[in-house]
Amino acid sequence: MSQQPNHEKVIIIGSGPSGYTAAIYAARAGLTPLMFAGILPGGQLMITTEVENYPGYPEGIMGPEMMEHFRKQAERFGTRIVYEMITACDLSSTPKKLTDGSGKVFYADTVIISTGADAKWLGLPSEQTFMNRGASACAVCDGFFFRGKEVAVVGAGDTAAEEATYLAKLCPTVHLLVRRDEMRASKFMQERVKNTPNIKIHWFTETVELMGGEKLEKIRVINTQTKIESEIPVSGFFVAIGHKPNTEIFKGQLDMDETGYLITKNGTTNTNIEGVFAAGDAQDKTYRQAVTAAGTGCMAALDAERWLAANGLH
Ligand code: NDP
Hints:
The protein is α/β, with parallel strands linked by helices and 314 residues long. Helix content is 24%, strand content 27%. The protein is built from seven helices and 19 strands. The longest helix has 21 residues, at 290-310. The chain is elongated and about 65 Å long. The N and C termini lie close together (9 Å). The model has no long low-confidence stretch (mean pLDDT 95). It binds NADPH dihydro-nicotinamide-adenine-dinucleotide phosphate.
């Protein structure tokens, strides 16, 4: 147990599949971890509908229900959960110092970072105006609301390709807005997009504005080659231009790549600071799956346990 008030052996930041899995393993190792779950716990799966590719659920399961299972399993073995964000940290101190959103200070021998990633937005003011009234960053979550209606998808990576083909099953026309003259998506996904007759690709196209009244009615786009602006009537506008890892508070302390993904040492969850481990989407821009996040959460707990033992703290 902890040596003094607010001094923990393991603090886990974040409550997606990686955080909860780290918690299950750390708790079963007798480390009674303290998890900061954030104000909206559960991570990206809370805005997902059915998860069909997580092993062990042959019939599929709703994302929020699955995260509820993860939470119960973590708590069953003694994980304590605080529904606050960690807003500041000093990871170079011994023990490491973390401050939560209420200003309370905590100390930890080891920290597991599983803060995940969030969808990126274009940054247009009108995007905010139509948030939940036509603009979305998740076709699987919100596509249902646009059945039978025209929609647009922005992006040219695998996510955009996947969202466009998903929406093409529900909507008469999907306008795929690509800012260059080629797609970044895998060849297979590009073929699938091109072979779907109701996906219309608009090359060299950027969005200028979302327009409408109570709900989204149309978008204004520009062809970056001809500079000609035009309007496309759509009810749904799906932004699929990638994700941003939630690693802002670790800048200047932990090694990260140019897009903010934490760098872990080959085949481990070790960061550049001893006793600080990273798991899940905060350090993974390639796989980004619930099952891979859970796997690295397990690794982080084992790495933390071994580090504590090697340093006489377990
Ligand atoms: P990516 O970073 O791969 O692609 C982002 C796309 O958005 C790019 O085409 C980019 O254009 C475009 N974009 C970025 N900013 C803007 C902007 N402001 N306006 C218009 N377009 C913009 O992100 P993804 O989320 O698609 O994929 C992330 C990773 O996850 C990849 O490694 C991908 O392969 C993987 N993934 C795999 C899947 C699968 O295998 N089933 C499914 C989904 C993702 P540009 O090309 O011009 O830079």
